[in-house]
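User: Can you fold this complex?
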Amino acid sequence: MRRRRRPAYNEGNTERDAHAVQEVTMARYVVIESRDPVAHRRVRDTYALALELATRAEEVALFLTQDAVLGARRTAPVSGELRGLLESVSVLADDFCLAERGIADDDLLPGVRASGIAAVVDMAVDEGRRVLWN
Amino acid sequence: MTSSLNLLIMDPPYESERTTTAFRLIDAALARGHSVRVFAYEGAVNLTMAGQAAHPNPLHGTDVDAEMHPTTREWVERLFAVAGGRLEWVNCGLCVDERGAGDWTNGPRRGGPADFTGWVTDGSATIVIPTA
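Assistant: Here's the predicted assembly.
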């Protein structure tokens, strides 16, 4: 019996890819980041993911929690990278984690909103958004 | 639309802020009136170990009461108390056996990944919190 040739990793599967793209474009997302962007370079990948999803999906929110809120300060050395998301991604910063770190609302990059963690629950459960935590 | 939230957690107690965040998510979901199902995987099965005990802090010169050191077991017990039957907690059986973590507080039950896959395929919301 002749075995079916296994496709190379970079070969397209039109039907499968079309289905995947449709799933992405019809979905809404919450991307969660918890790491300090200064200490962890891969946080840039999370920003890039949120931005890329925003170009394809219906709606994308980025929820910053734990040390990730440090990157939401207007004085953060990486704030420019986060600023680049604000036109297409709703960026929320966990108010509990902001308070723990002594970050006031006035310290936040304009456009970033302080929010309770219940917002994640609302977006996931009530709005049916897909949640991606890196 | 669903009113249930699934959480998969992996971090062991006292190691990562992600544990606190997971507890806050569970608490927030319960406060919203939702049901919550937790699958504790890998080191997270240690969160519910019955033998956990608070300790004094000789460095601070504080006894157990003054130190107010919360244990993750107590947090889980309190979540069960406020849940009123809306919290289901499954400890991964193989992870429990590997760690000898089978003596846990009232509430959780033993299970396996099939429990989690069943939850995520019933249309309810799911959050997977990876290890830090």
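Chain A is about 35% helix and 20% strand. Strands of chain A lie at 28-33, 59-64, 90-94, 113-115, 130-133.
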